TrEMBL record:
Keyword Signal tagged: no
Molecular function GO labels: hydrolase activity
Keywords annotated in UniProt: Hydrolase
Natural source organism: Rhizobium metallidurans
Similarity comment text for this entry: Belongs to the Nudix hydrolase family.
Keyword Nuclease included in the entry's annotation: no
Cofactor(s) needed: Mg(2+)
Name used for this protein in its record: Mutator protein MutT
InterPro entries: Nudix_hydrolase, NUDIX_hydrolase-like_dom_sf, NUDIX_hydrolase_CS, NUDIX_hydrolase_dom
UniProt cross-references to Gene3D superfamilies, sorted A to Z: Nucleoside Triphosphate Pyrophosphohydrolase
Segments forming domain Nudix hydrolase: 5-97
Length: 97
């Protein structure tokens, strides 16, 4: 059965030179207080990639460039809807280290 009107979201996987993955603590529902990849909802007129770049900057202050999409997963919103989350790999650069 197809999902009706999923809430689009995008996040980025950011690793440092020690291969640690950057996580942020969620400030808002769903999953407020939980640790997750930096990301959030896609704004109207925004691509998934643009949303990932914007959300990472808003949540961490890092400027990133997207390399490719890693995958997509669905997360129930607790109200009968679903978040369709797209995870992206970011390009390493001196500006983001």
């Amino acid at each position: 059965m197809p999902r009706l009107n999923p809430i689009l979201a995008a996040s980025a996987v950011i690793r440092d030179e020690s291969s640690r993955i950057l996580l942020v603590q969620r400030a808002n529902p769903p999953d407020m207080g939980c640790w997750t990849l930096p990301g959030g909802r896609v704004d109207p007129g925004e691509t998934l990639e643009q949303a990932a770049v914007r959300e990472v900057f808003e949540e961490t202050g890092l400027t990133i460039a997207i390399v490719r999409e890693l995958g997509q997963l669905d997360v129930p919103d607790g109200k009968g809807g679903v978040y369709e989350i797209h995870d992206f790999w970011r390009r390493r650069s001196a500006a983001t280290q």
